[in-house]
Amino acid sequence: MPAHPPPVSAAASSPRNSGVCRLDPRACRRYASARCLSQVLIVVAIAAVVGCTTSCETLWGGARADADSPRDKHRGPRLRPAGAQILNAAGVVEEISESDLLSEKCPRAPASKPTHMRGKGRYRYLDEISVEGLQPRRLTVYLPESYEEESERRYPVLYAHDGQLAYAEGEGLGIDASLDQLTEEGVIEAHILVTIDRTKARSQELTPCYGRCSRPSLERYARMLVDVVKPMIDATFRTRCGRHSTSIVGYSLGGLANLFFVWMYPDVFGALASMSPSYWWQGGAVLNDFHEYKGPMPDRLWIDSGTKEGRPHEAVPYFIHDIRKARDIAIAKGMVLGRNLGYLEDPGARHAGWAGARRMNQVIAFLRGHQLPDFREPSHVSVYVFRETIAPKAVTSLAVNLLFGEHFLMTWPNKQVKLLTRSSGIAKVGSDGLVYGLNEGTAIIEAQYGSYIGRDRVHIDKNVPTPQAWATSSKRSSATSAGKSP
Questions:
Q1: Does 196 or 46 have the greater pLDDT score?
Q2: Domain that holds residue 349
Q3: Which of 255, 302, 410, 455 makes a 20 to 30 Å CA pair with 201?
Q4: What is the pLDDT of residue 357?
């Protein structure tokens, strides 16, 4: 299997990385190559090679800047809760004051403290948390640096599924590192992070069970989280336990679970992230449930996926197809893209922890940031064609990404952007963002949003396998791997 790119460093939110690598990975490669070449021409050969390697790794992220440094060095500025912003039913942004946040009632009665807890420094471990019908698991609590120093202060809480994947080690999501960096930069206030370990029954615990069901299910897992874990955390640590101070992040099946939480527990979670969600489960049943839901929406909801999360022959990868549906349902229910709804089709990203990690800073900043940029006017526009090369009569899709400020990247609905091609005899593009190959050659695809224009290219080559050839090849590979003749 090909090696995955390393996770993006803490410096990945810099303007250079946001404007080049995140918006257009292909442009990033061209930029990196040009930068390396200039270094070769300026310095001696051996120094140039070292400089090139360093700069290229920085552009692609390299290792996280804090991967080998003690977590306690992330000391953020002293931030009291500055209040929260919500979008009311009239579409007006309302401020929730600090006093209201501190006095907000817990949705569930506090539980007794755990009988045993271990750990020191900023980590606490609660072992063997279990409820009837589910396997026991560990909770990990990652405390803010100021927690011990400020004994009267109360903190908002960020929960995360799949605890083994949540931290910066290996190819994890790096939620801890993102919280530290954003706190240090003053983007968010300090948070308590609570991660719930997954078990061998993960695929059952993070999926709902319609009708009668004796297996572990999302309903049981959710009750454990809301009726056991959260009250225990609120009783043990100095939390702000109300919904406006409680957020949750989930990836893959965890992202699927979080969309269900929108209507299962609207009084518990005020901000939710559904990252690379498995909405395909049960034929998209979650999207039907979301469409039927008539209750209140969360303060903020984030939905994302990578453009390479799907099958190679698909015009629109099925992950992208599903999250576009979820985005449109949320908008139909009154959520506003850029205000309380965040949405991103991450260029070139696959279904892997490192891909989620490179988005994590933006995800948390959107869910918990004090102030969001003005999403009415972007600072940059780019267009990303999902497949660089297609055959004549084949189809691919594109994403139009708008950069707001220096760090916030949002994918805008294709029908709200003017799309066109400068090579109409080679390819054509529809208002829905589908790109059709016509004749061999290279076509330039443009996206216009206001006064900004983004461009990408698509190559039409008759030697590229057609979707039918892809399907035949896949069947042959499956037959061979099963020990059968093609």
A1: 196
A2: 94-372
A3: 302
A4: 94
- Rounded CA-CA distance 428/434 in Å is 8
**Residue 27 near residue 20 (C-beta atoms within 8 A):** yes
286 & 165 share domain: yes
Beta strands in 55-204 (DSSP E): 84-87, 93-96, 123-129, 137-142, 157-160, 192-196
pLDDT in tens, 125-139: 988 787 878 888 999
- pLDDT tens-digit readout, 270-310: 999 999 999 999 899 999 999 999 999 999 999 999 999 98
233 closest CA partner among 133, 120, 106: 106
Shared domain check, 414 and 318: no
Angle at 334 between CA 330 and CA 340, to 5 degrees: 75
User: In this structure, are 41 and 99 located in the same domain?
Assistant: no
Query: Residue 466: left if φ>0, alpha if ψ -120 to 50, beta else—which one?
Result: beta
Written as six digits, the tokens of 104 are 């907000």
**Which of 348, 341, 273, 275 has its CA nearest to residue 305?**
275
CB atoms within 10 A of CB 119: 13
In a domain, 163, yes or no: yes
Q: To 5 degrees, how large is the angle CA 156–CA 260–CA 345?
A: 85
Answer whether residue 189 is part of any domain: yes
Nearest CA to 141 out of 118, 113, 170 is that of 118
Same domain, 414 and 359: no
Structure tokens at 329: 């349902």
Query: How many domains does the chain contain in total?
Result: 3
Q: Is the pTM of this model over 0.90?
A: no
pLDDT of 19 higher than 80: no
Instruction: Output the CA torsion 293→294→298→299 (10° steps).
Output: 150
Residue 479: what residue type? A
Least Cα distance to 143 among 237, 68, 69, 70 occurs for 237
